[in-house]
Write a structure and sequence with these properties.
The structure is a single chain. This protein is of the alpha/beta class. Helices cover 54% and strands 9% of the residues. Among the domains are: 2-87, Arginyl tRNA synthetase N-terminal domain (Gyrase A, domain 2); 166-283, no CATH class. The strands form 4 sheets. The protein has a 5-stranded parallel β-sheet with strand order 6-5-4-10-11, with helices on both faces. The longest helix has 28 residues, at 253-280.
Length: 597
């Protein structure tokens, strides 16, 4: 919508400004003034000052007098060093409304990707660890990016790259298969273990009493092993030995038991994760854990050797990256065990060569920034030109008053608990305010999870977020439930209209708030484009808040279903168009838009 007006303006201005500026530069330079009263589009002319040897303000004054105004625009004015253009109201109303009403559920979509395939790695929890609030960011940012790329015509492959391989599984397998010995060592070192005694007693009890197919058991085993290994160093060597056996697969009875334990850990974990994903509406196309790429690891090492990229350092194999101002990339440990980087190289090759992905995107916390710089540089050194199409999408952390969460220390806030608490809160509100609501449980789930998802996505992903229960579950102000409520309000008006959406005379939409609403509706497509370009869904979330606020003002100011019938029709079209855009925007974020609350 706004893009269409930019295209019209740049195309019409190009012949008139051909001696000063290229058409492509006009299109790239056009922007929306922060104050809508100053115009709908602005062309900065500061770059012309040097060639024309004039003050930018004088340049724009001269151009404003001489330019022929394109169709769809009513005037151009000089504002300092800017040429500001105003849309012709009826033309703009038709540009906005006609596209929304024609595209309906496909509004905002276009074929920008032209079928290119994008593999997006997101969520990716470590097996045998519960999904904490810290996993929320990767999960919802990744799912939203998948939705946005799809809307822009890309083929997407959402990958859940489970952390299901590495020495931690040797440790967990040893603890599981030698549970009695672990508990004996716990007892022997009890006085040295620094841990909250109440939580510690509960963890030890879970190891003793919980079934070994439960997640509580695995979580307790993980925490107790790591806490005890801080004072009993033998445990670390036991874990390394077990993982080396798992990786070399020597076909011994012990190795078969270790492999069986590992498979059990994966199955139990997936069952738990899928329950959380179901609550969030997260849908991966592929589950490909690190272990999936284990058969290709020797191929990676051989390729690095063949290219003479591998060097030995204290028994370990590395790729030296000092000339690129990076520490070495570790490929194998001194005992021959592979590392995270080895498996990531194999995974990248699989995604490009087998899945045929043109772009590889990794939605992983900012603290892994160095790892991805190393990974992409090693891929480049291996001769893979597609390394330039690999992108790390970093995000900040949740911060806590009591410090950083740590699974090893057992101080985590489980994501499922956060979602359950949000749903329970909404359930209570619905029961109090609308006890006869049909599908009340579905609404509680949609609004509760929507609050959690939107709270995350409305923030710039690169910034840290302070975890605050009250803010997270506050449904007033700039929140997901507020946007959902405005969507419900649109549905309510249309229900009362109770007739098909009419053809309407849009020239009747003359009031300021009607024009304001048209202006914001016209920005929807641009919000999606910026979210795609910057890989930041918060552009869509902030847009939806703007739209909700303008519609709310319009709703309170004007009686939509009263007075002149033709004006009612025009306003109904405006309401329906708002509903369509709100619904599409929420869906892009992974938030379900209820029709009633």
């Amino acid at each position: 919508m706004l893009t269409r007006m930019k295209n019209i303006l740049s195309r019409e201005l190009a012949p008139q400004l051909k001696d000063f500026i290229e058409e492509g530069d006009i299109l790239r330079s056009l922007e929306s003034p922060k104050d809508p009263s100053l115009g709908d589009l602005a062309l900065p002319c500061f770059s012309l000052a040097k060639s024309l040897k004039k003050n930018p303000a004088q340049i724009t004054q001269d151009l404003a007098k001489s330019l022929q105004i394109p169709q769809g625009f009513k005037k151009v004015v000089s504002v300092g060093g800017y040429l500001n253009f105003f849309f012709e109201d009826l033309f703009w109303a038709h540009v906005v409304i006609d596209e929304i009403q024609e595209k309906k559920a496909k509004v905002g979509e276009q074929n920008l990707g032209d079928g290119q395939k994008v593999a997006i790695d997101y969520s990716s929890p470590n097996v045998a660890k519960p999904m904490s609030i810290g996993h929320l960011r990767s999960t919802v940012i990744g799912q939203s990016l998948v939705n946005i790329f799809k809307a822009l015509g890309f083929q997407t492959i959402g990958i859940n790259y489970l952390g299901d391989w590495g020495v931690q599984f040797g440790k967990l397998a040893w603890a599981h298969l030698n549970k009695d010995e672990l508990l004996s060592r716990v007892k022997a070192h009890q006085s040295q273990i620094q841990f909250d005694p109440v939580r510690w007693a509960k963890l030890v009890e879970d190891i003793r009493l919980k079934p070994d197919t439960s997640f509580d058991y695995l979580y307790a085993l993980y925490v107790v092993f790591h806490a005890t290994s801080e004072v009993d160093k033998d445990l670390e060597s036991f874990g390394r030995d077990y993982f080396l056996r798992l990786e070399k697969r020597d076909n011994s009875d012990l190795t078969k038991k270790i492999e069986g334990a590992w498979q059990q850990f994966v199955q139990v974990s997936l069952r738990e994760y899928n329950r959380v994903y179901s609550l969030l509406g997260t849908k991966h196309d592929l589950i490909r854990g690190e272990s999936f790429h284990e058969p290709d690891l020797q191929g990676v090492i051989q390729k690095l050797n063949h290219l003479k990229l591998l060097k030995e350092s204290e028994g370990a194999q590395i790729v030296d990256l000092t000339q690129f101002d990076m520490p070495p990339c570790l490929i194998t440990k001194s005992d021959g065990a592979t590392l995270y980087a080895t498996r990531d190289i194999a995974a990248a090759r699989y995604r490009h060569d087998v899945l045929k992905a043109d772009k590889l995107i990794y939605v992983v916390g900012a603290e892994q920034g160095l790892h991805f710089k190393q990974l992409f540089k090693v891929l480049e050194l291996m001769g893979y030109s597609w390394a330039s199409q690999c992108t790390h999408v970093p995000f900040g952390l949740y911060r806590f008053k009591d410090g950083k969460m740590s699974t090893r220390r057992g101080n985590v806030i489980f994501l499922e608990d956060v979602l359950d608490r949000a749903i329970e809160l909404v359930r209570g509100i619905v029961k109090e305010k609308n006890p006869d609501l049909k599908n009340a449980e579905d609404v509680a789930r949609a609004v509760g999870t929507g609050a959690v998802i939107f709270h995350d996505l409305m923030n710039d992903r690169q910034k840290n977020i302070d975890f605050d229960w009250e803010r997270l579950l506050d449904f007033n102000g700039d929140t997901g439930p507020y946007v959902q409520y405005i969507h419900v309000r649109c549905c309510s008006v249309l229900s009362k209209w109770n007739k098909p959406i009419p053809k309407a005379d849009l020239s009747l939409l003359k009031e300021k708030l009607e024009r304001d609403l048209l202006r914001v509706l016209g920005r929807f497509h641009d919000s999606i484009l910026v979210a795609y370009q910057q890989l930041k869904p918060n552009w869509v979330a902030q847009y939806l808040l703007d739209l909700a606020k303008v519609f709310s003002a319009f709703y309170y100011e004007h009686r939509i279903l009263e007075g002149d019938l033709e004006l009612q029709k025009a306003r109904i079209v405006l309401v329906d168009s708002t509903r369509i855009v709100l619904r599409k925007g929420l869906e892009l974020l992974g938030v379900q838009p209820p029709d009633a609350m």
